[in-house]
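notes to self, project folder thing:

trying the whole complex as one job this time. last attempt i did each chain seperately and stitching them together was a nightmare. two parts in total, labels are on each line so i dont mix them up again. if this works i'll redo the older ones the same way
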Amino acid sequence: MTFEPMSFARTRSLLAAGALLLAWASAPPAVGQDAGEPDPAVGKRLYYEHGCYACHGFNGETGVRDLVATNSPIIADEAAFITYLRLRADQAPVLPSTRMPNYPVETLSDEDARHLFAYVASFELDAPEIDDVPVLRQILDSASRPYAP
Amino acid sequence: MDQNNLARGARRRDADDALDSARGLDRRGFLMGAATGAAAFAVVGAQAQTGSTADGAGPSVPPPTARQVERDAGAVRPPAVPPRAAVRPGSDLMVQVLKELGIEFVASNPGSSFEGLQESIVNYGNPPNRMPEFITALHEESAVDMANGYAKAEGRPMCALLHGTIGLQHAAMSIYQAYYSGTPMLLIAGRDDGFIQAHTANDMAAMVRSFTKWDAQPTTLRGALEALQEAYRQAITPPTGPALVVLDIELQKEEAGDLAVPAYVPPSIPGIDATTAREIARALLAADNPRLEVGRLRTPEGIAKAVQLAELVGASVGTSATSGPMSFPQRHPLSGPGADTRYDYTLGLETGPADVALIGPRIADIASARDTAGIGFGGLRGNGPANPFGGRGPEIGRRIDIDAEASLDALIDAVTREATAAQRRTIEERSARHAAANRDTYVRAVRDALDEKRHGWNASPVATARIYAELWPLIMNEDWCLASPSNFSGAHHRELWEHNRPYSYLGGQGAGGMGYGLGACAGAALAARERGRIVINIQTDGDLNYAPGALWTAAHHKLPMLTVMHNNRAWHQELMFLVYMSGVRGRGTDRGHIGTTLRDPFIDYAKMAEAYGMASEGPIEDPALLAPALERGVASVKRGEPYLIDVITQPR
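result (full assembly):
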């Protein structure tokens, strides 16, 4: 597939990047870990190719399953992440089919899963304070205005 | 004329000839005769009268009459006014019926089976083409969706006029959705049993009978006029829904003579009796903390009465205004959980939970009688709401099967009579407490919502929540209507916008069918055009591509419709389904985009709108560019000029 995702407007701080590198270095070995460092750029490509963005948004902060704001233990570390991807590999389809898909090792290797986690772990929540965004402040202020039929 | 038009013209002429031959008149011969003189005409006429055979071996041709010879010599001048087939055509009376019913618009894609009626719409009356106005649709599905959006906004029917068989078939899905929604509308299908055989049917309505409330195929002009009136009555009488009249072309063209339009008699919709009303009124007045749960009523007048009842008894009110039309104003001081959520008596109006609920007839009540096809009515035949996606209905102690709106006059009257002075003072104090509590609750809810909606605020592509948030300050002081379904776009308006009008939000598609949004918005914009209202259309890209011609309709008829694309370049729900299915089958999730996405190439919706004659801009990926674009769009629609902004968005 040649789909090229849209460019992101967000910028990330060096401090955050450093923290993420530290997190990777201290993470426990992943299940079936292959040689080589996980690459967020490869993970970004996989994130689109495997349709992760469909539920989690292009930046992991929108969509039906917000990844970054929920502090989910599933993305707390690489091992937990990969374990979750494999968790329901033997389950039959259920309806409604809006649950997390299964990612058996046959279709997403451990190496790719590590790349994917590297990208997911790089997500940051970009949520400005309400008072810092005039339109959000305006919405909040207007909420208390009198009812005018 | 291109080849298709030439071919179409040829087919039409062949069909005309076949029809005229069947009626004893050779059209080609007639035209030739007109061109070459009276003698030739006389021959043709004689052939028609004597039934000559194809091989020319028929009876001998009689000599021309003296009058024919005179005309051939130029001694006879044509009359100043050409003779007309009908001085008072039947279709004029049909239009008169529509006028008297208050039908503002007839949306239609032109068709020969109703050319008589169309001619009357555009030429009959003073001024012509007004009440009803002919609205040009580029697809019958759009025409019916327009009627759907209009009726949801106004609480009364519009008309969609459909060509025999093929136009009705085009319209079928949108009729199905209107039926599922219980939307009242008047459908007319033309029928011409002598023109194009493929475009006629003995029982035209049979194709859509399973999802229309009522139909008729009258055989006399008077019957046709009465059928139109009855269809209107059926459409607005609970259970409300689409009603169809099949009008034969011959009835449209028939000379009406001195036939008068019958007087229209509105339906009598039963409400609760005085005894039951008094019983409920006493319970409301005796309760320490009464409550109303208001679902979808039928008309704005019904909502006004529900407001009056709530104020008379000082009840807090639950509303469905954020999920569909015709419910209690969301920001009315009594709307909300109130000062105390321990309700000791709840009255439901078309919904629950409630101790007593008044729930009128639903389409489900008649579905089994009409549904000969067994088409998808599991959602309708249950006891719950008309929800194609199922779900249990709310808990109801005592259900009274009667229309709530028709019962409100009796309830208001009973409450007014029964209330004591002491109760009125209590009600006044309670109402004040509710108002303060509901305001605080609402402000907290908005703050909580904003706390969530700010996530991804600066994301590119643009977060859907930001579209709704940026729009709200621009329209909050306008008379607006959100006519597009929001279920695939995050539905952020429910938490950010105030839904105080009967038409603030028109709800979902009805049966989950795509292609509804644009047409419904155009219909709502028809209702809005003369009323100083603007229509907001948060338009999903997949939905737009079924019948984008409604963009032209909006431009042509100058509809105040702002379309903001929720362009995620996919039928996104299906993308998620396919990724899921691929995953659970263990065959890989990297081909989920096949058949579910709109890539390679991307579609340029700003150019699409431009091609249809609508002002537009985009695509916008940078969220910082969104607000100025929305400002331009709102300004445009306030001038009565539709506008489209293509926004590349996050998936949901």
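what i see at first glance: Chain A touches chain B through 59 residues (CB under 8 Å).
need to look closer tmrw
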